[in-house]
Each structure stands twice: as structure tokens, then as C-alpha cells.
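Model it.
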Amino acid sequence: MVPGITLSSRCRAGGAMPEKDDDAKKPASETVLDQRWKLQVFYLCFYGFMTQIRPGESFITPYLLGADKNFTQAEVTNVITPVMTYSYMAVLVPIFLLTDYLRYKPVLVLQSLSHISIWLLLVLGTSVLAMQLMEFFYSVTMAARIAYSSYIFSLVTPSRYQRMASYSRSAVLLGVFTSSVLGQLCVTLGGVSFLTLNYISLGFVSFGLILTLFLERPQRSLFFNRPEGAAPTELDKMAGGDGGGGTRGWREAVLCRMLREVGALAEQPQLRLWSLWWVFNSAGYYLMLYYVQILWNEIYPTTDNRRVYNGGVDAASTLLGAGASLAAGYVKIRWRLWSELVIGVVTAFQAGLLLLMNTTSNIWLCYAAYVLFRGSYQFLVPLAIFQIATSLSKELCALVFGVNTFFATVLKTIITIIVADKRGLGLSVHPQFYVYFGYFTLLAVVYLVAAVCVGIQHSRHKQLAEPALPKEPCQLITEVPAQEKSLKAGAM
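Modeled.
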């Protein structure tokens, strides 16, 4: 397709072939903007790729438990790792607000500085307190991920959002995959020590800081820095504002009204279901992610670094997750009828994988279960995003995802305090995974029971509708387009 000619314009032209001098007829200003957009895409994708190159990340836990740091498994499990969960809950909301208020770039700089702090502490730190501080900076980098995903949309027009999201997501996934493979090759084939690998990671994240400094700072943002004369948003309407800059409504009255609006949105069955999935399942997913390397070390406590395959497993899980996310886009079913069943089956599958991971003594079987667990989760993520975002404005969509993530973090923190923290039960890694297995099993039972209830309700409605069909034969004809419309709206 020739640049600048859309499908709709070609259809309106009656299918005529584009003329050869179309590009010559484009205004000079439009050509400059086109070139500028391409440069922005390239730099942002390069930045997203390079900031993921941290080859030592897959080997942090064996590094802490090995001869380099020599921490005990109890210290790593019950004292060091829980700090990340607590810190993440503490910094999530402030960073979420500062990202928009400061227009993204300062938070990206903070993220790069935090990455450097992580690897400086890993290389130089020797105490439990230093490793707890490392976990704090790790939580800052996790909370600041929203800055990159929001930043890319502030620089381009809405018509290019989908393409920009696709490019940036692909660059990030490619960076994670490359980082994991690079780390595994260095350890297995190059015989590189974990300490040297962390020095290499420190070099990459320092380069990432340099790239961050050259990012363009946007002039607008979603909430606090809207351009003058912009159309009023949903939040402006709730605050009774006119959209002029959007800041007055925020400063005066909006927060309580926003939360009430989110409460009203919870009455929509699909939005409520997928939001609950986001809260409960993501909490369990990340708890598994935080402690799985400790489980691997328990199952296969080798002292030969070349036989630690964490990087390869992370690469495989990233690849499968990307494929599962892509496959989810082609699933076309009646989500209003089958959502609970799909979620229930996937959650039951994940519960079985957790049980397998915790009971097997074969490290390769544990690796395979982990890869499948992550792939099944990544399969549902785009479905949840679509089902939540499909009926919401841009502002309310961001708000709902923020609220969902916050509640998931609160739940994750409560479970960590009770199960993992030494001030709670202080369980070792195997009993913890039995708890996570029970957690996912309970969720699966609830989802499947809900699926049965939805099926019974649908069957009753169908039976009640059948006697009316012979009396009104034209009713079926008028209902078919509505059914097709709901099919298209509910399918990905």
C-alpha cells in the first residue's frame, strides 16, 4: 500500500489504482512528520530493546545463594525477597501519578538509575540490608514500566496507536529473549561467572541510562498535561470541567468521582469478571515468579554454574508467551457465554502445573511446567485487556487497569505477609508452592461453578424464548444481525 493512502480512501475512489505521483503531491510538512514518526518509532524500539538486555537477571537467585554472596535459603526466601512485594505496593501509586504529571521522561530516567543501583548493590553489597535495598530498587523499576508503555502513545496520533504498541511490545519481548539467551550462552558455553555476568549487566543498564537522556520529553500527557483547547475527557465531564487543560478538575474534585465511576463500571458482567481475573490470578502469577528460582535451586542444587539453565528457561517462556498472546487474538467465541469456562479451565491447568513443579524431582520437568504456566497466563492477558478496554474511554481504561493492578498488589502483599515473611508463617519454598496450588485450585473451582451457572441461565433463557418463535417468525430474522454484532464485539 502506498504511504498516505488508507483502505477507506481507496474504496471511496471506487477501487481505482493510486497514481504514481501521490507521494509528490503530499505536503512537505506531512512528509517531514512522516519521517519524524519513523525516527521516533526506531529510537523507541531500540531503547525498549536495549533496556531489556540484562543477562544476569535470570541468575540473581543462584548468585545470592552461591559462593559469591553465600546467603542462606531462609534469608533469601523469608527476609530478602518479600521486600520487593512491600516496596512495590508503596511506590506503585506515587509513580503512576508522577509518570503522568512529570510527562514520562523523568520517571524513565528514575527507572534507569534504579537499574544501575540494583546491579551496583548486587556487585558490591554483602549484607542482607543491601540486598533488601536492591529489592526496593527492583520494585521501582517494575512500577516505572508504565512510563514506557504510556510514553509511546503521547508522541503519536491516535491513528498510529495500534502500530506503535505492536512495534514497542515486539521490541521489548525481543530484548527479554535476547537477554536470556545471551546470559545462558555466557554461563554454559563461555564459563562466565555470575559476578562477571552482573558486571556485564551493569554496563548494559548504564548504556540504557544514556539512551534515556536522549528521549524527547512529550508536551502532553493523559491526565495532568492535556493541551489547551482539547476536547473534554470522561474525567473532565465528571468534574464538570470544559476540558481546557484538564488540570483544574483534577485539583478540585475528581478523585472520589472517578472511584465512584469505577464502582459503577463494575456492574458490567464481562468487565467485572476480567477485572477479578486480573486481580486474583496476576497476584498468584507474580508470587510464583518471585520464588520459582528458589524452588529450582532446591530441586537441583548444583555448584556448577554451567549446569544452571535459568536463562534458557526464561527465553523459552518468553517465546511461548509471545506466541500465546498472538494466538489469543484469533480466538473467536461468544465471550459472554464462555468467558468463565475458558478462565476456569486455564486456571485449573495452572494449578496442576504448580503441583507438578512442587512435587517433581526432575528439574527439566519443573522447567517445562514453568514455561507452560507462563504461556497460559500470557494467553489470557490480551483477552483480559480487550474485554476490559473495549467499552471504556482511554482515561477510564487507564484508571481501571491502575485500580486492578493496585488491588492485585495489595492481595499479593497480604499473602506474602502471611505465607513468606518471617514475621508470618515464614514457610520454606515447597510449602509455599502448596499454598499457591491451593490458591489456584480454589480460583478454578469458583470460575467453573460460575461457568455452570452461566450455562444454566443461558439454557433457561433459550427455553423460554423457543415457544415464542412460531408466533413471530420474523423475530428470528431481526435478531440475527444483533447476534452477529454481539459475536463480533465479544471476539478477539
